[in-house]
Write a structure and sequence with these properties.
Blueprint: E1 3-13, H1 17-26, E2 32-36, H2 47-50, E3 59-60, H3 77-80, E4 81-82, E5 85-86, H4 87-97, E6 103-106, E7 109-112, H5 118-130, E8 134-137, E9 139-144, E10 149-154, E11 157-168, E12 192-198, E13 202-204, E14 216-225, E15 228-239, E16 243-245, H6 247-262, E17 268-273, E18 276-277, E19 280-281, H7 292-300, E20 309-316, E21 324-329, E22 346-348, H8 362-378
Parallel strand pairs: 1-2, 1-11, 2-8, 11-22
Antiparallel strand pairs: 3-7, 4-5, 6-7, 9-10, 10-11, 12-21, 13-16, 13-20, 14-15, 14-17, 15-16, 17-20, 18-19
Helix pairs in contact: 1-5, 1-8, 4-8
Length: 380
């Protein structure tokens, strides 16, 4: 295969949400080349279209508070807030004033005004196109930090791209991404934690009876390691033929990963306390008001009314079923502007970092805000 060489002022690996938003923000102040595995430019940032079941909850109000009220966000504090810098609020303001993305809030979630993901995708994509950024369909194979070169494989051959700055924004390997698309991360010499499934269903050791499959039960879901409570999450659980799903379970998968990272042989289980949820108690409910599937299950298991349901963790669903990936480049290796401490020409954004966030607009909000923070540094 033929090999060509060229110089790139700003090389962006990954044409997802953060890569396209960054390119749109930096604009014509830099000559930009975006490399992505997609074959056509119009397919870039396509995950925006499917997020939030097509509604795109693109931000969470928790990102706006300082200090963060939600403890899972503490690792973002140094990136997002400073004495004269409030990145999440500034990002929302730019999305509205410069990109024309009006929004409304449903609880803590921000949605586009017309409640459709295309209303977030199109303004960002159009601004990316107008930025003058070039596009190359290909896959990064390796990065040589000393030579400041990136080798990219395309359908036509290999390209050796010398760069002034390079941005790693390829995301993780969940959903429709392939593991090989992230293999270049192992060549850079930056501390890296392998990707694993996250925000996904879990498989359990117990057999789920057929009459339970497809049923939903709202309650407080506890993740336990032995008898120790790891995390509690209010929400809905969906029973599958081999395990559990639903937003509450998806968010618990973050803590499952944390436990397995510390102890791969940890004995984990889930307890579903359906007597309480969202600040309400159902203790006054009579058995005749229980769902039939729940009454039958309690009877078969010889359990008393309101006795929590228990399931032993077996494994996470595969990456193909995950909304995001757990793991990535260690965030501690980067400065507050997402620039590598040991090499100011290397930058990283979004899910390629090992900052793992729950459902509810956090991950897209992080991708957008991190791109805004880095754009300020790259425009200097």
């Amino acid at each position: 295969m033929p090999t060509t060489s060229s110089f790139v002022d700003l090389l962006v690996l990954g044409g997802g949400i953060s890569g396209c938003f960054l390119s749109a923000l930096v604009g014509r102040k830099r000559d930009i080349l975006v490399v992505d595995a997609e074959e056509k430019k119009e397919k870039l940032a396509k995950r925006i279209k499917v997020s939030g079941n097509g509604r795109c909850n693109f931000f969470n109000a928790d990102l706006l508070s300082t200090p963060f009220a939600n403890p899972v966000l503490t690792r973002l504090e140094r990136f997002f807030h400073g004495e004269s810098f409030d990145a999440p609020k500034e990002t929302l303001s730019i999305l509205e004033k410069d990109f024309g993305i009006a929004s409304f809030r449903d609880g803590k979630l921000f949605y586009p005004f017309f409640n459709r993901s295309e209303c977030v995708f199109k303004p960002i994509y159009d601004a990316f196109i107008n930025s003058g950024a070039s596009f190359l369909s290909g896959q990064a194979l390796c990065i040589d930090r000393e030579k400041k070169e990136c080798v990219v494989k395309t359908i036509d051959g290999q390209h050796v791209l010398s760069y002034r700055d390079i941005v790693l924004a390829t995301g993780g390997i969940s959903y429709d991404r392939k593991e090989k698309e992230a293999s270049y991360l192992k060549t850079i010499g930056i501390p890296y934690y392998p990707f694993s499934p996250s925000l996904c269903p879990v498989k359990v050791k117990e057999k789920i009876p057929s009459y339970l499959v497809g049923c939903r039960l709202r309650g407080r879901v506890l993740l336990l390691e032995g008898e120790k409570e790891i995390h509690a999450e209010d929400g809905e659980v969906l029973f599958k033929d081999d395990g559990l799903s639903g937003i509450a379970i998806f968010n618990q998968s973050l803590y499952v990963n944390e436990c397995l990272r510390k102890n791969p042989s940890a004995e984990l289980s889930f307890s579903i306390d359906y007597a309480f949820h969202d600040g309400f108690s159902g203790k006054n409910c009579g058995m005749n008001s229980f769902p039939l599937f729940l009454s039958r299950y309690l009877k078969e298991k010889n359990r008393k009314p309101f006795a929590p349901l228990s399931f032993s963790f077996s494994s996470l669903y595969p990456l193909l079923c995950s909304q995001v990936s757990y793991g990535g480049l260690l965030a501690e290796s980067f400065r507050n502007d997402f620039t590598l401490r040991k090499d100011p020409s290397i930058h990283a954004l979004g899910e390629v970092l090992d900052i793992n966030l729950p459902c509810g607009g956090y991950n897209i909000g992080f991708a957008l805000t991190s791109a805004y923070v880095l754009s300020k540094a790259l425009r200097r």
